[in-house]
Each structure stands twice: as structure tokens, then as C-alpha cells.
Amino acid sequence: MYKLIGPDGKEYLSEEKGTLGGNKSTKVYGRLDCPTALRYIAKGQYVKNRVFFKDEAIALAAGYVPCGHCMREKYKQYLENKEEYLKRFGNQ
What is the DSSP string of the chain? Predict the structure, then answer.
């Protein structure tokens, strides 16, 4: 079983592995292979705040924003128009 975060921001158990990772203190989500996240994890940082999501819609619903490094285009879209971005991508 995997521990994932739901749209309400609460943890739940799932038989499916999450497709995105996040940091619960910064409220940022990104790809599981994000170089920035992996660099912090290798240093022993970030691990205690690491969370996982089934998909992007759930990460957005839980109040997380796209990573500016591994999801640069989605982060730019988010910054340009936060309300429209959340409407478009938060309800998938």
C-alpha cells in the first residue's frame, strides 16, 4: 500500500503508486524524477516533508502548485493566471 494525499489534503492508503511528488511545507508538486527534489533527497533533506499524489488534479485540489524546475511551463501558466489555471487543470 502507498500513502497518497487526497484532494482534501489528507493522507490515504492506495494500492496504486503516486505519479507526482510534493513537499508539504512548500506546497509544491512535481515529477518523481525532478532533479531539484532528488538533489535535496540525496542530501537527506526534504524526505520528512515528501508527499505523493495520484495525479495533477488532486495535487492542485489539495492546494499545491507546479514545480518551477521540472514543470516549468505549467508553473509559468500558473503564475500568469492562477484562477484560470486552477479551473482548467484542477478539475481533470
Answer: -EEEE-TTS-EEEESSPPSEEEETTTTEEEETT-HHHHHHHHTT-SGGGEEEESSHHHHHHTT-EE-TTTTHHHHHHHHH-HHHHHHHHTT-
pTM, full prediction: 0.85
- Cα separation, 34 vs 31, in Å, equals 5
Mind listing the pLDDT tens digit of every residue in the chain (92 residues)? 999 999 999 999 999 999 999 999 999 999 999 999 999 999 988 889 999 999 999 999 999 999 999 999 999 988 888 777 777 666 54
Cβ contacts of 23 within 8 Å, gap of 6 or more = 29, 37, 46, 49, 50, 51
